[in-house]
Amino acid sequence: VQLVESGGGLVQPGGSLRLSCAASGFTFSNYGMRWYRQAPGEERELVAAISSVGRSTSYADSVKGRFTISRDNAKNTVYLQMNSLNPEDTAVYYCNAKSNAVGYWGQGTQVTVSS
User: Where are the strands (E) in the chain, listed by range?
Assistant: First the structure.
């Protein structure tokens, strides 16, 4: 089982990034997918979630209206489009696959928002 995040980097305040998480080794379309983030000294927090077939999504209040989660089950990939980034969005972003009691994590990708 692998979840490989990509797309992180350094971006100026107000900028955008698109994170991707490529999944392999399990039946991707059976799993709800989530993006979490963890800033230094902080607990990991749930940012966005999408159901197994993409019909429903949910977001943390701090990112509503700025971030969009989506998935392509044909490509076994989940995305996080992040717009209007601010320094408080700086964190390591992780993707997570969950189905009932089974869950998998990626290794994370660093997002830094700074001028």
Answer: 2-6, 9-11, 17-24, 32-38, 45-50, 57-59, 67-72, 77-82, 91-99, 102-105, 109-113
